Amino acid sequence: MGEKHPLPAGMTRRALGAATLGTALASPALAQRAWPAERPIEVVVPFTPGGGSDLIARATLPYVQKLLPGSNFIISNRPGASGQTGNEFVFNARPDGYLLTVVTSPTLVTIPIERPTRYRAGEFSFIANVVDDPGGIWVRPASPYRSMADLVDAARTRPEGLSYGTTGVGSDDHLLVLDIAQKAPGTRFVHVPFNSSSPMQTALLGGHLDFGSYNMSEGYEGLTDGRSRCLAQAGAARWHKAPGVPTLQEAGVALSGGGAQRGICGPPGLPAEIHGRLVEAFRTVLADPAFLTEADRLGMPIRSIVGDEYRAFTLGREAEFRKLWQEKPWREG
Predict the structure, then answer these.
(1) What are the φ/ψ torsions at residue 50 (nearest 5 degrees)?
(2) Please, are residues 30 and 24 in contact by the beta-carbon 8 Å criterion?
(3) For the whole model, what pTM was predicted?
(4) Angle between helices 272-285 and 52-67 (to 10 degrees)
């Protein structure tokens, strides 16, 4: 972003950005001119418009903007490789506070387990988790599968198995179906990955998939207007916005977890003052009754985790996923 200039010998662009901004922050007047009023703050959504990651950005940032005088947030959709493309773009950017990204877990930590990446998850500047979104198993209204028992029976008896869509290999959606397959021996599922939930839902409703695995907030609108049905959701308890949808446990599958956590991160080395202002702004918004009312209306299951706690939460299950990869590489799932 912006014109590039030659760097002093031995200095990386990231180090130069941090050093320059550190000098500016020594003066409050210079700091105010340098950030955030100097130019828009771009927030990368590493998926196509219309999915859960897109929703949290568009719903949350107007409230954050009010708490940062002079700021102007803009959203840039950069889909590709289950979020890897956009996250790499931000990870390798200058840490000046003008470029942030939406991250999704567990994908942020599972992608580097299965393939090389140009980012290291633990080095992002973690700002705030916004939602904790249970997974769901979805079918079109005319589907013959009226329950999880119907779905599991068909996956055992159809020679070709059942096709299902997710938001990518190693995503929470994909891992959820792999977990279901482990709990229901003899089932056969054929994975069809997509770049985001919007095109996947289009394929599902068009009859090109037997079912879809995607999060409850992503299917909420279709559930309320009758475009889709949800056979079960993966939370420990029923989501209050969809009280008629049983949990997987209630539906006969011995699972009590599975979903996506979505939040905001910056590139490594984000200066402490900028990082702190962003963390406090998100902390305030995620406790704001007006925002919480709007989030509930939109079907966003809010879970506020900020700063270092958010980093520890995201990285906490990495060892568990590495063990799963050794036992059953999900690339082969």
Answers:
(1) 105, -10
(2) yes
(3) 0.81
(4) 110
